Amino acid sequence: MELQEAILKRRSIRNFSRDDVTDDQLRQIFEAVRWSPSWANTQVWEFVVVRDKKLIQGVTETYSEKNPARKCSLAASALIVACAKTGLSGCYGGKQATKHSDWYMFDLGLATQTLCLKACELGLGTVVVGLIDHDACKKLIGLPDDHEVAAVIPIGRPAVELKEGPPRKAVSEMVHLDRFGKKMF
Hints:
Elements: H1 3-9, H2 23-33, E1 45-50, H3 53-60, H4 70-75, E2 78-85, E3 91-92, E4 95-96, H5 104-121, E5 125-126, H6 134-140, E6 147-156
Antiparallel strand pairs: 1-2, 2-6, 3-4, 5-6
Helix pairs in contact: 1-5, 2-5
C-alpha cells in the first residue's frame, strides 16, 4: 500500500473481528513509529500494549460513560496506551521553551499518526480514544509520575468493510499565503 492510499483509506474503526493482532504486526508498527519526528529528537513517547482481558476491561472503565469506543475496546485484540515522558519535549535545560507547555502532545500526535497509518497498511483498524480519566488509566498501567497518558488506541482487524470517509475541507479553505485570509490556492 502506498502512503497516499493509507492516508485516504485509514478510518476510525469501532468494530473488530475476533482475529488477533500478532506480535509481529505490532513489532512492524512500532518499528515505523520509532522513526516519527520529535522535538530535538527527544522521542518522549512510550506505549503500553494491553492484551490481558481483565486489564482491557479496567482501562475501558476509565473511559467516559458516553464514550462510543467502550464497546470496540472490549472487542479489540489489544489496547495501546499512548504515553509520554514529560519535561523534555518543548524544553531546553529543563525549562519550557515554547508557549505550549505540553509539546509532548504534538510529538505523541506525530507518533500516533504513524502508528495508525502503519496499522492501516497491515490491514488493521484503530481508533484514537481521548475521552478518558487519564489519571485513573495512568495508575492502572503503573505509569511513573514523570509520564502522562495521552490516549488509548484499540487495535484489531476491522469486522466491517471500510466506507468512504466523511467530507473534508477543500485545500483552498485551509491554506493561506503570507497572512491569514489571503488564499493560496
